[in-house]
Amino acid sequence: MTKEWLGGTTIFAEMSALAVRTGAINLGQGFPDTDGPEEVREAAVRALREGKGNQYPPGPGVPELRTAIAEHQLKRYGLAHDPDTEVLVTAGATEAIAAALLALVESGDEVIALEPYYDSYAACIGMAGGTRVPVTLHPRNGAYHLDLDELRDAVTDRTRLILLNTPHNPTGTVLTREELAAVAELAVERDLLVVTDEVYEHLVFEGEHIPLASFPGMRERTLTISSAGKTFSFTGWKVGWVTGTPELVTAVRSAKQFLTYVASGPFQYAIAEALRLPESYFEGLRADLRAKRDLLSAGLAAAGFEVYRPAGTYFVTTDIRPLGESDGFAFCRALPERCGVVAVPNAVFYDHQKQGAPFVRFAFCKRTGVLEEAVSRLRGL
Ligand code: PMP
Ligand code: GLN
Questions:
Q1: Which element (helix H / strand E) includes 196?
Q2: CA of 326 to the centre of ligand 2 (A)
């Protein structure tokens, strides 16, 4: 097959189907097993009843949501955006990534992505006709590290953009201020664009999330992507967004209009309200997930895994070699039968599959009782 990025089913669909088939606890695909805040659901119902968004909403997104996104970026990060020209609502972050790459990447352009990378990156770089250039994060001392020299060496005359992701799926790495400053310096020096996927911006347990766009020289060359799916536990609503300069956002909008045109009408109104929830909501989400991270990490360590304790996201990556295993694919395919738990092999997020082979990702965005049950099952391995 020439379009190798179209091969097969996504690992998330495959593993969720395996969970359904075997009745195993699904810690594979990353979605919460409880829905987001009641008042946000009510806001969606209200919008539906009031006939808001039941017909095509405006192409760039409803003004209420674009304004709320601009307010969020300003209040949290000091990034000022004109809601009319610098904010675009998309069908989840997935469409934002696709539209950004289709808009900006020409055939033969190189796109640098941190490896392991979220699976849609490879597919969308392929759809845009680009060539992906992975820069591998290295596991060391219980965490994953970006080697800035390797990033620098990956830039060539054909590099069009860096596709960044922090907090990072699947490793849980949160890039530090120093690392982000170095990425920014490199982008400015080599005149590169950066598309930065910050969907886990509110799920940070250690350190802080700093948007790349806030570094000197980056406002004008960065497209920032986020999503309500993660922050508000409504992955099925598919409300995402992009912020950046009018030129960059217009380019993304041009591609987006031929992908979905618009999406998620009534949900856009509800997410506008969600973005204005009091700080206690965001703190509560973080505290809840921090406790779940600790529960699952401790359980995995007790079961014999080497655990890479995540600073952010709702995933924990483990090394299965201490269990006498080395093939994450085989391990994940057998795990439901062995102990009734589903996980995801990190190798699917690598070009250098050998480097990813012994690593396996578990999601902890599940109810405490479910995680406790998973931990007790894993202890039987
Ligand atoms: N980027 C990353 C890093 C993700 O983990 C996900 C969801 N798992 C997405 C993008 C897609 O987000 P959405 O569901 O809003 O399309
Ligand atoms: N982002 C989710 C994950 O990493 C899954 C999204 C999907 O199924 N495409 O698990």
A1: strand 193-197
A2: 24
Q: Give 86-137 as a DSSP string.
A: SEEEEEHHHHHHHHHHHHHPPTT-EEEEEES--HHHHHHHHHTT-EEEEEE-
Over residues 18-22, mean pLDDT: 91
The per-residue pLDDT for range 44-69, each reduced to its tens digit, is 999 999 999 999 999 999 999 999 99
* Element (DSSP H or E) covering residue 344: strand 344-345
Q: Bridge partners of 196?
A: 164, 224
Nearest Cα residue to atom 12 of ligand 1: 93
| Pocket lining: 91 vs ligand 1, CB cutoff 6 Å | no
pLDDT tens digits for range 264-306:
999 999 999 999 999 999 999 999 999 999 999 999 999 999 9
**Atom 7 (ligand 2): residue with closest C-alpha?**
12
Residue 118 Cα to ligand 2 midpoint, Å, equals 8
Whether 5 is in a domain gets the answer no
Looking at residue 10, its pLDDT comes to 87
ipTM exceeds 0.95, yes or no: yes
Q: Could you read off the pLDDT of 187-210 as tens digits, one per residue? A: 999 999 999 999 999 999 999 999
3-class SS of residue 300:
helix
Pocket of ligand 2 (CB under 6 A): 10, 12, 29-30, 169
In a shared domain, residues 310 and 245: no
Asked if residue 84 is part of any domain, the answer here is: yes
Atom of ligand 2 nearest to the CA of 118: 4
- Kindly state whether residues 350 and 291 are assigned to the same domain: yes
Domain of residue 291, residue span: 11-30+280-378
Number of structural domains, the chain?
A: 2
